[in-house]
Write a structure and sequence with these properties.
The chain is an all-alpha fold and 400 residues long. Helix content is 57%, strand content 1%. The radius of gyration is 30 Å and the shape is globular. Bound molecules: zinc ion (2 copies).
Length: 400
């Protein structure tokens, strides 16, 4: 039996100092990364601070106000950077669903870092781990194992999920330029935020009619846009394992959702993705809108990326057969839950409805009261349902 280790009097100060250094150098880990990764899951107050700063930054809108330019900048950079998260962090670094050059991948990692979701290597390491352990107790962010809020935000605030395990992403860790970007992951977001402020200040000086200031563009273009981007992305960790339809009976509880596909530019087809993660597209059919895939396809025409991997025919055949089985099961369920309805009923109802439609279309117009002849179109409906009322002759046509 081992005795509990008494807390060091300066442990909180040490942890705070370590966290401060880690905000600059995220690979700094004096305790040893393996030891930190073995810690239990718990929200670490020091690690929560960046998220508090991000959310409090949005409140500054009270002082800086708004302008159409600032709002549209926030919207545009939400979608531009969502494309970077899904098209680069996810579909390139995590799954290698297309190819690029070494310089190309550095540019992609640089662009994706503006999303302020740590480095591409940290992102890929955690995401590959998620696919290996989806919805089992090892999964860092399963809503089924840990609850909704842990899967949405809690897991990122836990110290154990902070270090990047480079031994699990050796194919990426052999590029020192990528490791460098991953290690100093605050540099690009800081430059991005500074660029927002600088652009706003320039516009205030040279295009005052836009009503933009440096602080206003910083709040909208960085804080608000990045906060929405953070929650939009994390919907895939939380909601995409809770809401939507399951086409493939995967071992996890991943789901397909059109709503999440719009919010995340195609990541909502999460059940498709868990079934087959090595293809570039996640919407397997034209009606499964996947804007990230269209963007990557367009990017492939520039020559920056190539070799986009298709959905294998065997997976499409499996999807077709499962969809067919699901349609039959749904019809069967409908006939059970509505006993009056069955295919037999349909056979009787359809010809009868057709006969009624033909009879109505060929009926003498003189029998049917015309609006001009019979203005009481909003009459009491009991007149229509009462058997005696139906036997009454139609009102005489008005004489002109
Ligand atoms: Zn998942
Ligand atoms: Zn994935």
């Amino acid at each position: 039996m081992s005795a509990a280790v008494p807390p060091h009097p300066h442990s909180l100060f040490r942890r705070l100092a370590t966290a401060l250094v880690q905000w600059i150098d995220s690979d700094y880990c004096p305790e040893g990364a393996d030891k930190v990764r073995a810690e239990p899951n718990r929200v670490d107050l020091v690690r929560v601070m960046p998220f508090i700063v991000l959310h409090l930054g949005c409140l500054a809108v009270i002082w800086v106000g708004w302008s159409p330019f600032a709002v549209w900048t926030a919207v545009a950079f939400y979608f531009i950077r969502m494309f970077a998260v899904t098209g680069i962090h996810h579909r390139y670094f995590s799954h290698k669903t297309y190819s690029t050059s070494r310089f190309g991948q550095f540019l992609l990692a640089l662009f994706a870092a503006t999303a302020t979701q740590r480095g591409s290597l940290w992102w890929a390491y955690h995401h590959r781990h998620h696919h290996l352990h989806s919805d089992d107790p090892e999964d860092a962010h399963s809503p089924h194992v840990h609850g909704f809020w842990w899967s949405h935000i809690g897991w990122i605030t836990s110290r154990r999920n902070f270090p990047t395990d480079y031994s699990k992403i050796k194919d990426l860790a052999r590029y020192p330029e990528l490791v460098w970007l991953n290690r100093f992951d605050l540099i690009v977001p800081l430059l991005f935020a500074t660029a927002m402020w600088g652009t706003g200040a320039l516009l205030a000086a040279y295009a005052p009619h836009l009503g933009v200031t440096g602080a206003q563009l910083l709040v909208w273009g960085f804080f608000i846009s990045t906060t929405f981007l953070f929650h939009g992305t994390n919907c895939i960790n939380s909601l995409a394992h809770l809401m939507g339809r399951r086409r493939f009976p995967t071992a996890d509880d991943s789901r397909n959702s059109l709503i999440l596909a719009f919010v995340t530019l195609g990541e909502g087809w999460h059940n498709n993705h868990h079934r087959y993660m090595s293809c570039t597209r996640q919407g397997f059919y034209w009606w499964e809108i996947d804007l990230t895939y269209y963007g990557l396809k367009a990017l492939s025409y520039t020559g920056l990326i190539w070799n986009l991997k298709p959905v294998p025919q065997s997976v499409l055949d499996e999807a077709a057969s499962l969809d067919h089985a699901a349609t039959i099961a749904a019809a069967r369920l409908a006939s059970q839950s509505h006993p009056d309805f069955s295919f037999g009923t349909l056979k009787k109802v359809v010809p009868a409805a057709a006969a009624i439609a033909v009879a109505t279309a060929t009926a003498s117009q003189s029998v049917l009261p015309k609006k001009t002849e019979h203005p009481a179109v909003h009459r009491d409906v009991t007149e229509e349902t009462h058997p005696l009322a139906r036997q009454e002759p139609p009102p005489p046509a008005a004489q002109s």
